[in-house]
Amino acid sequence: MNDAHLHLILNHLPIIIPVIGLLIMVGGLIIKSELLKRTAYFVFMLAALTAIPTFATGEGAEEVIEKLAGVDENLIKTHEEIAEKFAILCYVLGGISLLGLWANFYKKSLSTIISYITILICIVTLYYAKQTGTTGGEIKHIEIR
């Protein structure tokens, strides 16, 4: 297994996991469940953790795939630039989730506002997740270009 294969295996995790966290967080806010909100924070932190190896394998995947016929170097560059922003947003989402988890236990007055900030950051992160996934797919899937 090379870095390109590993990258293809991992790259769906930081895209899908925040969607799950968002649904859990919204559900927690609707039914006023602290347990669901805490669960969502853990899910968002998991998303941030999965972004680390996904981003780390990207460079190796680039080295493998740029040698293949029909690969446009500009598509790789575009994907890499968007993926960097996406990774940073994943880390921010994980960090705000850690803060939200702390507030949920120790600073209840901040808990709800941090939950809404987390949702906002998650939505922005998911926009970049979609862009990252699309630009990554365009590298070898000419049918979506």
3D structure, described in words:
This protein has helices spanning 3-10, 13-30, 34-65, 73-106, 108-140. The chain is mainly α and 145 residues long. The chain has one domain (3-144). Helix 2 runs antiparallel to helix 5, helix 3 runs antiparallel to helix 4 and helix 4 (73-106) packs antiparallel against helix 5. The two termini are 27 Å apart. The relative contact order is 0.17.
Brief rundown of the structure:
The protein is mainly α. It has helices at 3-10, 13-30, 34-65, 73-106, 108-140.
SSE order and pairing:
Elements: H1 3-10, H2 13-30, H3 34-65, H4 73-106, H5 108-140
Descriptive keywords:
mainly alpha, single chain, 145 residues
Per DSSP, what share of the residues sits in E-state strands of 2 or more residues?
under 5%
Radius of gyration: 17 Å
Order of helices and strands: HHHHH
What count of helical segments does DSSP give?
5
Quote the distance from N terminus to C terminus. 27 Å
- Report on the biggest sheet: none
Helix fraction by DSSP (H/I, runs of at least 4): over 70%
Average pLDDT value? 93
Backbone structural class: mainly alpha
Tell me the overall shape. elongated
Low-confidence sequence ranges:
none
Q: What's the domain count?
A: 1
Secondary structure tally: strands:
0
